[in-house]
Specification:
0% of the residues lie in helices and 51% in strands. By secondary structure, the chain is mainly beta.
Length: 119
């Protein structure tokens, strides 16, 4: 299971750090990613990190503002979000997958945490 936390209400320009704690299995053998879904929109990819943590990918709209990282010892993945804008408002989901840049291979999903950015 994946448990996302850290969401909340923040003013534009502010920061939040999302966490995704894994339990029940070791997710070190999976690539880990964050996705988000805004109201009335489809879920979209945000960021992902390789098994080793050595490779990361971001959607263009968050590059330079968001940072994904993982702590294998804690079986936890993080998403540091800075310079937040209203367009970042969404439910954020963490997920575990098989291959980078292959969203269809994500197999396990967390329950989501709501991020609301007020302008």
């Amino acid at each position: 299971q994946l448990q996302a936390s850290g969401g909340g209400l923040v003013q534009a320009g502010g920061s939040l750090r999302l966490s995704c704690a894994a339990s029940g299995r070791t997710f070190s053998s999976y690539v880990m990613g964050w996705f988000r879904q805004a109201a009335g929109k489809e879920r979209e990819f945000v960021a992902e990190i390789s098994r080793s943590g050595g490779s990361t990918f971001y959607t263009d709209s968050v590059k330079g503002r968001f940072t994904i990282s993982r702590d294998s010892a804690k079986n936890t993945v993080y998403l540091e979000m800075n310079s937040l804008i209203s367009e970042d408002t969404a439910v954020y989901y963490c997920a575990a997958g098989l291959f980078l840049q292959r969203p269809s291979t994500y197999q396990f999903w967390g329950q989501g945490t709501l991020v609301t950015v007020s302008s």
